[in-house]
UniProtKB/TrEMBL annotation:
The keyword 4Fe-4S applies. GO terms for biological process: base-excision repair; mismatch repair. This is Adenine DNA glycosylase. GO terms for molecular function: 4 iron, 4 sulfur cluster binding; 8-oxo-7,8-dihydroguanine DNA N-glycosylase activity; adenine/guanine mispair binding; metal ion binding; oxidized purine DNA binding; purine-specific mismatch base pair DNA N-glycosylase activity. Belongs to the Nth/MutY family. Residues 37-188 form the HhH-GPD domain. It comes from Teredinibacter turnerae (strain ATCC 39867 / T7901). The lineage of its organism: Bacteria, Pseudomonadati, Pseudomonadota, Gammaproteobacteria, Cellvibrionales. Its EC number is 3.2.2.31. Its cofactor is [4Fe-4S] cluster. PROSITE patterns: ENDONUCLEASE_III_2 (PS01155).
């Protein structure tokens, strides 16, 4: 075992996180589920979602058999919904191709939907005690600082260098503890802002600490001005107060989720609604709200339209539903859609 691993494991024995929900018990299913949820998401945010998921779906078989809508509904609010769709596909593939048991081989793991190199290594090391190095965001930060690796980790040359260090330090024993330890170090001491260098077990050999500017590592992502897209969302209510939702295509932004009908900014909402859905009794425009994706901002102009009785052409179908605010069905909703529905319900209560 390298001195790096020795020091890290000694620190972990006294200070590591050992009471996270997915650690009791540790199973391949629970490790996989937690690792997918933890991609680009903080532990504190993930915990309640994880607990709801395992309460509903105890293993690969129950998750594989569930309707995608049910999976997306439980995922609502966690973001990056491709993870939920891949989660569902992965469970189905594990059942169909591996008899319901998660494979332990790295190459087989990487063939499963939603599992890349680092996630596969996390599953292999934590669930199966294999010496497979990971490189998530926390680990990149720890290694970039310890070795003073300059540059943004998203750059291929920097990324490759960090992988080399990750594999160099990976011990052959206590693989599970080491993987958890290096993640914990990045999450609790070697944080992005205000790293606690004076109590860090790696301070003796840390090159970034010697520079006196540990926060300079790793290098920041080059700033990019995000483009802005605009759309009008049509919040249409029938006389019973139910709201029309449409299911989005399975791929693309909010794939498979339920949302409001949309039209381009500047289009005549009332004429469009009358032509497509029915006559409008009353129409209200709400303030524009912004939702930011990784590659652009989306400015949403909500338009609330109360339809006259017996709206035309809007029978429920597989891809559309009248959403009851008082007893909402279990549907996967995009975050801004959920927010708008909540606001609509609050306004209804105030009006009563």
């Amino acid at each position: 075992m390298s001195s790096f691993a020795d020091r890290l494991l000694a620190w972990f024995d006294d200070h590591g996180r050992k009471n996270l929900p997915w650690q009791h018990p540790i199973t391949p299913y629970r490790v996989w589920l937690s690792e997918i949820m933890l991609q680009q998401t903080q532990v504190e945010t993930v915990i309640p979602y994880f607990e709801r998921f395992v309460a509903k779906f105890s293993g690969f078989a129950s998750l594989a058999e569930a309707p995608l809508d049910e999976v997306l509904h439980l995922w609502t609010g966690l973001g990056y919904y491709a993870r939920a769709r891949n989660l569902h596909r992965c469970a189905q593939q594990v059942v169909a191709q591996h008899g319901g048991d998660m494979p332990s081989d790295m190459a087989e793991l990487e063939q499963l939907p939603g599992i890349g190199r680092s996630t596969a290594a996390a599953i292999a090391s934590i669930a199966f005690e294999q010496p497979c190095a990971i490189l998530d965001g926390n680990v990149k930060r720890v290694l970039a600082r310890y070795h003073a690796v300059e540059g943004w980790p998203g750059k291929s040359s920097v990324h490759d260098t960090l992988w080399q260090f990750a594999e160099k330090h990976m011990p052959r024993e206590r693989c599970r503890d080491y993987t958890q330890a290096i993640m914990d170090l990045g999450a609790t001491l070697c944080t992005r802002a205000n790293p606690q260098c004076e109590v860090c077990p790696m301070r003796r050999g840390c090159k970034a600490k010697k520079t006196g500017q540990p926060q300079s590592f790793p290098g920041k992502k080059p700033r990019k001005i995000l483009p802005v897209k605009t759309v009008q969302m049509l919040i249409m209510r029938n006389p019973q107060g139910q709201v029309l939702l449409l299911q989005r295509p399975p791929t693309g932004i909010w794939g498979g989720l339920w949302s409001f009908p949309e039209i381009e900014t500047g289009s005549d909402c009332e004429n469009h609604i009358a032509a497509q859905f029915g006559r409008v009794q009353h129409l209200t425009r709400w303030p524009v709200m912004r939702h930011t994706f990784s590659h652009y901002h989306l400015d949403i102009a909500p338009v609330v339209a109360d339809l006259l009785p017996r709206p035309q052409n809007i029978a429920e179908a597989d891809s559309r539903v009248w959403y009851n605010l008082k007893s909402p069905p279990a549907l996967g909703l995009a975050a801004p859609v959920k927010k708008l529905l909540t606001l609509l319900d609050e306004f209804n209560l105030e009006a009563q």
